[in-house]
Amino acid sequence: MEILKRRTRGTLGIGSLLVTALLAACGGNDSGPTGPSGNCAPTPPTGTMTAQVNGAAFTANFSTQATIQNSTAMGPNIVQISGVGCVDGTATRVQQILITLGRLTPITVGTYRLDPAAQAQPAGSGYSGIGQFVSAPNLWYSNRSDETGPGVGSITFTTITANRLAGTFSLVLVSTPGNTSGNTGRVTVANGAFDIPTP
């Protein structure tokens, strides 16, 4: 497998562990006189991601990340974007939006579904499209279903190059069974937009 481009904005990895690591890195144990950092990020990210999460403004003011991984013919091709934002502008609480697409052919400019019915469609494509929202320790996914029905979502890439990913997205995400009390309802992400370099 040939990895064409992989770039991390900030110092953290992808996925749910990112938020946990961020809390620890920012002094999340609140020990000592300094406690959690009052600043969101010493160095603001180069890329941008914004959205409305359940009606509240979300800005990836801690870190952004974009990954493009293309393989040889008929191997996995993966595109992923991530944005981590500090709630209320401080590093004491963070949230993350993470969207991952994969299929057997390269991801190109266009719109991709992120709901349960879209998975592995069309047959033989190897397609997987997942939207995730993290507000540690709670997780929500667009490709899950609950008693009220499936999650929904889509992402539109307007730019996919070796140096940049840009586009828009919207999500309705379903909570996981392990979420804490008060965090079991759906999360709606509207007016999502991103423009993240991948040099």
Order of helices and strands: EHEEEEEEEEEEEEE
Roughly what fraction of the amino acids lie in strands? over 45%
- Helix content bin: under 10%
* Computed Rg: 17 Å
The general outline is: globular
Number of strands: 14
SSE class: mainly beta
The end-to-end span amounts to: 19 Å
Low-confidence stretches: 1-37
Helix count, DSSP H or I runs of 4 or more residues: 1
Any idea how many domains? Answer: 1
Largest sheet features: 12 strands, antiparallel
* Average of the residue pLDDT scores: 81
Explained architecture:
The protein is mainly β and 199 residues long. The chain is built from 1 helix and 14 strands, in the order E-H-E-E-E-E-E-E-E-E-E-E-E-E-E. Helices cover 5% and strands 47% of the residues. The strands form 2 sheets. Strands 1, 2, 3, 4, 5, 6, 7, 8, 9, 12, 13 and 14 form a 12-stranded antiparallel sheet that branches. Strands 10-11 form a two-stranded antiparallel ribbon. A hairpin with a 2-residue loop joins strand 2 and strand 3. The chain is globular. The N terminus is likely disordered.
Concise summary:
With 199 residues, the chain is mainly β. It has one helix spanning 16-25; strands spanning 5-8, 48-53, 56-59, 63-69, 77-86, 94-103, 110-113, 128-135, 138-141, 145-146, 149-150, 152-160, 164-175, 187-197. Strand 12 (152-160) and strand 13 (164-175) form a beta hairpin.
